[in-house]
Amino acid sequence: MKLNIYGLIIMISSWTLITGIFVYCYYKVLKTEKK
Amino acid sequence: MSQRELWATRIGLILAMAGNAVGMGNFLRFPAQAAKNGGGAFIIPYFIALILMGVPLMWLEWSMGKIGAREKRHTTISIFEVLWKNPISKYLGSIGVSLTMMFVVYYMVIESWTLMYTFFSIKGSFMNVGSIENMRNFLYQFQGVESGEFFSSDLTMLLGWIIIVAINVYILYRGVSQGIEKLAYIAMPLLILFAIILVIRVFTLGTPDPSVPENSVQSGLAWLYNPDFSKLAFFSVWLAAAGQIFYTLSIGQGTVQTYASYAPEKQDVALTGLTTASTNEFCEVVLGGSIAIPVAVAYFGIQTTMLIAQKGSFDIGFVAMPIIFTKIPLGALFGAIWFLLLFFAGLTSSVALTSPFIAFLREKFGLNRTKAVLLTGIILFLFGLPNALFIKFGYLDQYDFWIGTVALVVFALIEVIVYAWIYGGEKMWEELTGNADIRIPRIFYYVIKYIVPLYLIILLSGWLYQDLSSDKSEILLKGIEEEKIPYIWLARISLISFFLFVAVLIKIPFRKKEEANEA
Questions:
Q1: What is the ipTM of this complex?
Q2: Interface contact flag, A3 B218, Cβ < 8 Å
Q3: Which helix (H) or strand (E) holds A10?
């Protein structure tokens, strides 16, 4: 079985979206960190 | 009221909260569910459930914890009293405390398997086991389900379970900032590092046996992500996706509220809640989805992996993966990394699950942490022991069904009604958006108030219908072997007893207060 175009789109877009939000959140948390 | 503890840093709280959410299910349950329910098509209802139910509930529970921080209340019992001035509210809130405690008593048993399998990997105990069938026998004999050449009794597992209870009790005894927060600082980065190491190893495997080119990592990814859109028409796929979101985010319990209540009064909950959810999703979809299934397909092919997945998530983690470790170079090392990863994921979740009950004992009875943790440890032992001893009689499965599947959804529904409807939607929105570091679109007000309860009602009704109409109904005990029935009833009675026990405990200090007032 090979990754078809839909599978590739779903995989790449879900990984990009989740990683993007994950990185953005930590960037924002570290930027606004108040002790 | 107990003296209030605080998290030392905001990032510490986020890591602890992420540790609560990221559990063994991220690496075992998600890939099995995705593969069984239409691969790439499963991701669509999964994301819809994440946006319309998961993240909103995460925000809702964080903001309940924020009220707890302001009012110096650390459990859903006392927070519910603030939300709804009605004598019944504390009893409804007690479900959040009782269910987390009943969750953790069986969760620690599973956690002990990960610890012992780490030792087995290092020692090379399963390196010569050979076939899938033999590896399954190894697991069953370890669990005490059967006895044979690998283990004659479940003593090894019991030893692991005692160690796990002791580790949890020690971390909880150390307190919020010195125990739980320090654990999160060590375990969470290590967990992500281990997962990345394993993903790199899996992705560089390619096609392990060139004579069978269809068995490859790419085939595994294709099986997981190539969509079967016809599956979207099945209600069961939507139920499985929503159930996975519930399970993975650790929502519908009392843990998020307890953890958030140890933060400063004027905290942001919008960004921190989203950060928790995104950490969990990164560990689940990006990392969790890239390890077990792709590597299993590369070694066993799609058909065999499908059969293993049908047997359940544990067969993937504790049967398929150990076999693969016997076949790859440095297998003992990668095996230890895999089980240590699961151990850290389990440990950060189990300390979170135990925290609400400790907070309850402290705030209701004024106990110091040592006494509260000691009492909790005794309960963990008493209720956990039958879970460890009677695995073969379906005792643990009953706990998992009623607590890990049903009670979470029921409690989440109660939370939304009490908070967004009785306490008030606008007041809830103010709590959620006050001091926020990111702007939450107003549409989520309507999502929390209307869509989330609707989603939960559909989810609960769907599950009940699915179970009651099945030939293997858990509720009606259809198709269950005769010898298991007494143990299943014992499990059910013990669960009901604990919920009643907590309700009685709630009553005690109030009576004392009333008596004091009368005097």
A1: 0.95
A2: yes
A3: helix A5-32
